[in-house]
Amino acid sequence: MKLAGRVALITGGGSGIGRAAAQRFAAEGMRVCVVDVDGDAAETVAASLGGLGLRCDVSDPEQVDAAFAACVAEFGSMDLAFLNAGITIGWSGDIGALDLAEYRRSVGVNLDGVVFGAVTAVRTLRARKDAAEGAILATASLAGLVPWHPDAVYALGKHGVVGFMRSIAPNLAPENIAVHTICPGITDTGVLGDRRRLVERIGVPVMEPDAVADAVLTAATAPLADTGTCWVVQHAKPPWPMAFADVPSADHRLNMPVSATRT
């Protein structure tokens, strides 16, 4: 996808990976709509890039719809959605001690937020006046590819994002809409919080958000034929596409891409 002159909407754009990606998109000539539950942070980032800052709780589909509508009203279009907002919850990892409200909050942002964002992004892309290539990107995590024992609910959400994005990709390819997932390792964001020194003390390198933004740019500019790719981001390595094992099965006869249903 060519980025210059196009419009990007970034959730969780007020800090961390979202802010770094917004800066990278703007440097590539895109107009950016920065969306964050912290409206002041969104406006600050957007103002520095000549963009639009909006407050939005991505776990609320009505707020998501309103954010996309505001983006289109301001810029006339929306060509790329980067569904990046994510949180972690404070618990011991003991599933028997899980608080139901915290569970709902985690899944609401990390999984529902991507689903709601993708639904609205597809509808918004379909409403454009041209059929130029569009893209939907989502931030998952290495915890979406491997077990994550400290926070199984976080792993649940991120595994869900990976499966969801891989499943919708072939359905949307005929409409010139590319779908990619970004799976970074430990990164210095709000999800990590104040634990960076502790993490590094036990020998785990922490990436800067800019390193993940490089992968976001790689995904955004990848050929449409690469749609459905999960881009793994690890410390001091270029982003690389995850190769998933094939499971031979007659069930695949039913597992075919689905054509769009238009109303």
TrEMBL record:
<dbReference type="GO" id="GO:0016491">
    <property type="term" value="F:oxidoreductase activity"/>
</dbReference>
<dbReference type="InterPro" id="IPR036291">
    <property type="entry name" value="NAD(P)-bd_dom_sf"/>
</dbReference>
<keyword id="KW-0560">Oxidoreductase</keyword>
<protein>
    <submittedName>
        <fullName>Dehydrogenase</fullName>
    </submittedName>
</protein>
<dbReference type="InterPro" id="IPR002347">
    <property type="entry name" value="SDR_fam"/>
</dbReference>
<comment type="similarity">
    <text>Belongs to the short-chain dehydrogenases/reductases (SDR) family.</text>
</comment>
<dbReference type="Pfam" id="PF00106">
    <property type="entry name" value="adh_short"/>
</dbReference>
